[in-house]
Amino acid sequence: MRYVKWTLIALILLFVGGFFHYTLPQHDIVRIVNTYEERQDISGWTSIFWQGPDNGTATTQNRDVQFIQAVRPNGKSIVYRNEDTGWGWPPYFKFDTANLYTEANDAISTKATPEWVSVTHYGWRSQLLSIFPNAVGIKQVEGPDVTIIPWVNIIILTFLFLFVVTLYRIWQQFRERTIEPLVEDVEDVLELADEKKDSAVDKVKRWFKR
C-alpha cells in the first residue's frame, strides 16, 4: 500500500511539474536566422500543443503557421511557432502575431555579425511529435552571455508554494479539530461495545455453568 501511495504522489508531482514547465514563460538567448510560413496538418492528440480556433487561429485543422528559426550560442538550432493565444490558455493574451513576425524578421542576423535576442516563449520542442514552443516576445540583448532572471516564474511559484503551505496547514487543523476527535470517539464506542460484548459472553458462560 505504501508503494501505491508514493507512486500516486510521484505521478501527481510529475503532472503538476510538467504542467508548469510547459505553461510558464521561458527565455532563450538566440540569434534569429530565418522566418517562414508553412501549412500544418494539425490533427490527432498532438493538437493540444497548438492553439485552438477560439484563440484567433484559423478554424481549419490544416492551416498556415508562422515559424521563427534561431540558433543558440552553442550552435544548436531551435524553431518557434508564432501563434496568438487570444483569451484562451495559457493566459498570455497574445494578439500581436503579425507584429512579432515583423520584429523577428528585423532581428535576422548572420554568424559573422550576430544580433542576439531574448525570445520569451512557452511550450516544448519535439521533433518526434512535431511540436514547437510558441514565441510570445522578442527583446534585443547585449550578448549571448546575458542572464535573464525569470521574475514572473519566481513570483508565481512563490505564491503557489504559499498557497500549498496554507492548504496543508488548514488540512492539519481540520484533521486535528474534526477528524481525530471523531476517530477517537469511534474508537471509544468500539471499545465500549467490545467491553459489553465480553461482559455478555461472560454472563452467558456463567449461566451455562449453573
TrEMBL record:
Name the InterPro entries for this protein: Phage_phiNM3_A0EWY4
Transmembrane segment boundaries? 148-168
UniProt keyword annotations, A-Z: Membrane, Transmembrane, Transmembrane helix
Q: Does the keyword Transmembrane apply?
A: yes
**Designated name of the protein:** Uncharacterized protein DUF1523
